[in-house]
Structures are given as structure tokens and as C-alpha cells.
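Structure request: Chemotaxis protein CheA, Hydrogenophilus thermoluteolus.
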Amino acid sequence: MSDFAGMQDLLQDFLVEAEDLLSGVDNRLVELEKNPHDKNLLNEIFRGFHTIKGGAGFLGANELVTLCHLTENLFDKLRNDELSLTPSLMDLILEATAAVRDMFSYLERSVQPPPAEESLLERLRAALAGKLPEPAGGGTKSQADAVDSGKDGGSEPDWELLHQVVAGETANESKATPKPDDAKAHDGKAEAKAAPPAPKRASVPAPVRRPAENRDQGIRIETSRLDQVLNLAGEIGLTKNRLTALRSDILAGKTDPDTLHALDVSVNQLDLLVSDLQNAVMKTRMQPIGRLFQKYPRIARDLARQLGKQIELVISGEETEIDKTMIDDLSDPLIHLIRNAVDHGIESPEERIAAGKKPEGTIQLSAKQEGDHILIIIADDGKGMSAEKIRAKAVEKGLISADEANGLDDRQSLNLIFLPGFSTAEKVSDVSGRGVGMDVVRTNITKLNGTIDVQSEPGRGTTFIISLPLTLAILPVLLVRLGEQPFAVPLSMVREILPIHLDEVREVGGRSTLVVRGEVLPILPLSLLLNWPMTRSPNYGVLMQMAEFSFILGIDSFAGREDAVIKSLEDFRPKGVAGVTILSNGQIVLILDMKELFETSTGRQGVSKKELEKYAQPPEAVMQPA
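Returned structure:
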């Protein structure tokens, strides 16, 4: 039986509030480290922790209360100037907040958390007595460690190799570079000796990750939004009653112009009300992205301290709203990108000074809405990446041919880092080894119907741009046709539509291409991607933009744009199909998963110009012998 039988509602309420409070405490602690004499910050931290302790006491989580009480007493002594905030004391406090978060993971399973590590409790008591020994067995535990612990293995980037490519090192230099156990080397050079020593990792009990199917399905909604939904539902009810009365009149033979006009007005009114209701319901799913961003300052701070770096994480756009269902799935990719920026993007203070930069590096995390999409940007002012070196490394590893490499511009070359084979699991640093590669980051973003792009300039820094739809419930699509059969493709991947004239088609490497504003793009007929026999040459091309490459999707015709309400295929989902939607005329249309379709189809090899010309001829000419 659960340790919290009969208290599930109270427990869930506590966890929702306590998670937010603890994230707020962590962020304020990071701010406090920069402004150690800010009493207002200390008071806010004390109040947040006191609230957590009170809720834990009400639930009878005594071990959590014990840990919170000792940590709260430290805050009280800092408020009263009985203790001074030092880096080692901050490490100890953050280690305690990480242990509190670990205890939450037990509560999520309705299990009483075990005691915190005795060594942690002893060091807290010693600090309260004015004695602050060096952490026994290690300093802070990064919040990212808590997030990443217990994950399944996956493709893991060879960060050492990637970093050599990023920095433009030669193979000989990389072989001569010793690989330390801790994160003391960056670009084959020693980290800043003047920086504080990197604390070792704490052996705090590993958190228990909540399975995806057990994630909290609740959502907090502003009352005003629910009021709007209720008001619209009431208006729709009144309109329905009016339509019912008009229907009875028409069935009784009353078809005069006034009755028909009233019917037309009521149908139009119902159309507007349903559209407003749909938008209002969508808004109830939206949550400020700040709830996702709030844990990242702590992550960046912990990692920077481990590496002896000086880094400021600047966050903006926290008020931007995003579909609640995306927040959990965005967490790991963003953590990975931030850790990558701290670990490999930002140089050591010594390297930055030598390059004419200020010793403190800056990482910017921002969000904003553009049209029907959300943009999330992670930018650093570090060493940047060399497109030429990445292109050469991809050829060396056999991921692309030399001919393909020659056809890539800098943007496409930088996106090669998302290819699974670009990284290996043989060499990983203690900091970055988390079982998540850049290819998995891209895959997770793609599952959200989003895209990720990278921009970089050697010596200036790197920027990752994630574009996501406002909601996963409605997907803007372009309707294309093969013969009379319609298909839907995500509009977010469509750059433009253009006609295909055979006299403009050029053959490169045995496959048909078109030159669009200086960019050579292969023509991939949709019929071949679907593994259907090609019976005619495509009349139109849809310029599709995937993460690291573009191509022209050959189609017969197109039927416009729709906002598709996605219906999943629960029991049977063919490869390359993301779901289905129903058009306004009642027709069922498949929504294509272009990434999966491309990766699993033999049609991605394209088609020769001769084949296009063959199927452009009349059918009787095709049957004639050569």
C-alpha cells in the first residue's frame, strides 16, 4: 500500500508547488552568489525553503523535513550575518537543494524518501557550528545530473573529437593532447589555474526519474481563460437552440426568405463561435516557458564551477507561452545544448583573455513567438565552429562523400553535427557523457514537429535556433496530390512551391536536380518516397527544409493549406505517417512524417533525368521499344 494512502491529492498539490518553489530557490541562490549581501534575496530564499519544509511536515516526510530544517538554519544564519557566503558554503547549500529534489522523486512514487547521506547532514551541522570542511566526496550535484541520471543509453557524442573539429585543431595536435579524468582540458589546453578548484561530484542518492506515462498530466489554468470557454459554450448552446427551432420551421414547410436568411446568420454565427472556442481551448493548454527555463541557471552555474569557468546565463522571453505537452519533452534537449555550450562552447578565462574577450562568457537563452511558431534560441559567445573542418571530418568518417561535401554551403555543413555517425561513444568527458547525442536532440525536436538549426562563426560563438509549432493539437499543413490522392506535409518544413520544367532540370551524380537561387537541390518524387511506382513526371516541386539539408519534393499538384487537427493511429502506424486528419469535405488524409519517410525509403536516392523525361512522354510512347 502507498505510504500516502488517502493523501494523493494533497501530495500532488505539494509536489507541483514545491518543484516551482525549489527551482525559484535555486535561481535566487545563483543570483545570491553574485550579490551575497542582498538581504531581500536571502529572505525570499528562506521563505521558499520554509514553505517546502512546512508542506513536507504536513505530509509526514520526516527525512525531508530534517534536511530542509538544517538548510533553512543556514539561510537564517546568513540573514543574521552569523555566517558569510563563500564558494564552498554555496556548494554545500546547492548540494542540499539537489538532495531535496532527489527526495521529491520518491514522493512522486508515493514513497517516503530515505534519509539524506549522513556525510551531507554532518557537513550541514558543521557549517551551522561555523566549521565548513571541504565536501567529503564532492561538492555540488548539478541539477542536470539529477535530470540525466538513470537514462537509457543512446548515441553519445565524441565531444573530444567534436571539440577538436570546432576549434580547428589538427589530427597531430589532438593525438598529443592528454585527456584528463576531470574537466581540466579544453581545446587541449589547461583550464585557468586562478579559477577555484572544481569540486568533485557528490554521492547523493540517484533520483528516480518519473516514467513518461506517469508524468503529471495536470495543468494550471487561469480562471479568466476557463470563464471564456464557459461563456463561449453558453453562446454555442443558444445558437444550437436557434438552429433547432429553424430546422423545425423548415421541416414544417416554412422556407420564406426571412427564415432562410435567419438560418444563414445562425450557421455563420456558429462557425465563428466554434472557431473562438477552439482557440480558447488551445489557450488553456499554453504555459509560460519560464517554468521550463527556471532550472537552467542552476545547471549552468554548477557546470561552470566544475570546469573552473566564468559564465553568465542570460534568460529572456520567459513569458512566452508554449503547449504544455511540449515542456517535458523539451527539457532534455535544452539541458544538453546548455551543457554543451558551457563545456565546449565557452573558453576558459585564460583563453578568452588571450583572444581579446572578457574572462566571463555569456550564454543567452531566449524564447519568442513569431507567427504560429515559437523560437527558442541558445547562443554563446565562445570559440564557434569551423564549417570547413566539420565538412572534412564528415567525409573522413564516411558520413558523406567528397562530392556531396563540395555541394554543401556553410550552413548545411554546420548541420552535419546532427548526423548520428558524426559522434561516437568511445570517448566522452565526465561532464558531457549523458547518453544523449546531438542526433537525439534533433530527433526529440522533430518529434514535436519542430526544427533545429545551427549558426556559428569561429572565434565569435555558436547559436542554436529551435522552431516549434504553437501547439501539437493543430498542425498547419500543405495539401499535396499524387494523381487524385491527397497527402498532408507539415507547413513548417515548406520553404516554397515551384514548377518543375524538364528543360531546367540538371543531372548531378546520377540524379535530377534544380538550381534554386544558386543552391543545387535534388528532386525526390513523392511517389518514390512512398515506394509507389512512378507513372508520371512531377509537375510541381515543394522545396522542403529538413535539419541539415534541403530537397525538392516532386508532386502532381497541390490543394492549398489547412490547419489539421491531428488524429493519431493507435494500433497501426505505417512508417512515414505521423497521423491522419479529416478535411472540411469529410475526406481522410494521411499526414506524412517527412523525416521518417526520407530515412526509411529507397526513394531518397532520387531519380535520373532520363527517368523524368521517360515519364513525361505520352503513355503510348513509353510502351514503344527503344
